[in-house]
Design brief:
Helix 2 runs antiparallel to helix 3 and helix 6 crosses helix 7. The protein is an alpha+beta fold. It contains ten helices and nine strands. The chain has three domains: about 50 residues; about 140 residues, no CATH class; about 40 residues, no CATH class. The strands form two sheets. The chain has a seven-stranded mixed sheet with strand order 3-4-7-6-5-8-9, with helices on both faces. Strands 1-2 form a two-stranded antiparallel sheet.
Length: about 300
């Protein structure tokens, strides 16, 4: 946007005795050309009205083609288009009631509302994609769950359950959850379990479950798919590793004996750094017998190496 040396001033006057009012003044001391109106013209609004059943991007393409010199933005077009079409999807002033009504009107052969028990302190609703599950349910061996935060103005989190089959990612179910206060411990866990039980009944061959470090997701998977192996998904694992390697602090101490007590295939004599010689004198001389005999006298050490 062009600027001019008009010596303009914006004056905002506040009165300490008046809390809910203030005065705003704009002054120009030197003349300059009038501002350009970048609002939608009546002709543009008419085109959007005529094409309201088309996508906003398609309408934008037509406006750019017919009005190449206009300064209207794509966001303006999308906003006006959404205002025209809101009556088609806003079935109630309450967002949650409206969403439930949309789901109820959906094709029952494609969408199924997942039954969920009432949980004090939790507001939630969920739906599954029947066509996808009925087509691939028996082939699905692994599923993953992830969530977004502050999905909408109502403050609901969106949980999505995605599967893999035939080398493709398949959305299975979506759940909106929010805490309204006063809930019991584990309320969100039990809410997610309802969704996973619905999926388990339709996908009986799931052997692997994946999530991030969300404890509610982990607890729900562990309860419903108690025979499946649960692990951190690859994308989140890489992200956490990158974050950890970027921190300027040493890692937690490593004790090979504790690791060996949980997983006996881990060598209890191994310590970080031993493979490249960067280890304190004497530690590389430890043997399994000496560690067992003198376990109480071993000092646990840790090292951090850049990759």
């Amino acid at each position: 946007m062009d600027r001019y040396p008009c010596q303009g001033k914006l004056l905002i006057t506040l009165n300490p005795s008046v809390e809910d009012a203030f005065r705003v003044q704009i002054k120009h001391h030197l003349p300059h050309p009038h501002y350009v109106d970048i609002g939608l013209t009546d002709t543009m609004k008419g085109i959007i009205e005529d094409m309201k059943d088309s996508s906003a991007s398609l309408i934008w393409s037509r406006l750019v083609r017919e009005f190449p010199d206009n300064e209207v933005t794509q966001s303006q077009v999308h906003f006006h288009w959404s205002c025209i079409n809101k009556d088609a999807w806003r079935l109630d002033p309450d967002q949650i009631v409206s969403a439930m009504n949309v789901l109820k009107q959906a094709n029952p052969e494609e969408i199924e509302i997942i039954p969920m028990h009432e949980e004090e302190g939790i507001s939630a609703f969920s739906f599954g994609l029947k066509d996808v599950i009925e087509s691939f349910g028996s082939e699905i061996n692994e599923i993953a769950m992830d969530s977004t935060w502050k999905t909408n103005a109502a403050g609901y989190e969106l949980y999505a359950v995605v599967a893999e089959a035939g080398g493709r990612a398949l959305p299975l179910a979506f759940t909106f959850v929010t805490t309204v206060g006063g809930g019991r411990v584990g309320a969100k866990d039990r809410t997610l379990q309802d969704v996973l039980r619905w999926i388990k009944a339709k996908c009986p061959n799931i052997k692997f479950t994946l999530s991030d470090k969300d404890q509610s997701e982990i607890n729900a998977f562990s309860t419903v798919f108690d025979k499946a192996k649960h692990q951190l998904c690859y994308w989140h694992a890489i992200r956490y590793l990158e974050e950890r390697l970027g921190e300027d602090r040493p890692p937690a101490s490593y004790d090979g004996r504790k690791a060996h007590s949980h997983f006996n295939f881990i060598d209890p004599t191994w310590v970080p750094g031993i493979t490249n010689g960067n280890v304190e004198p004497g530690l590389s001389d430890f043997t399994e017998d000496s560690i067992v005999e003198d376990a109480c006298n071993i000092t646990t050490v840790s090292y951090f190496h850049s990759i």
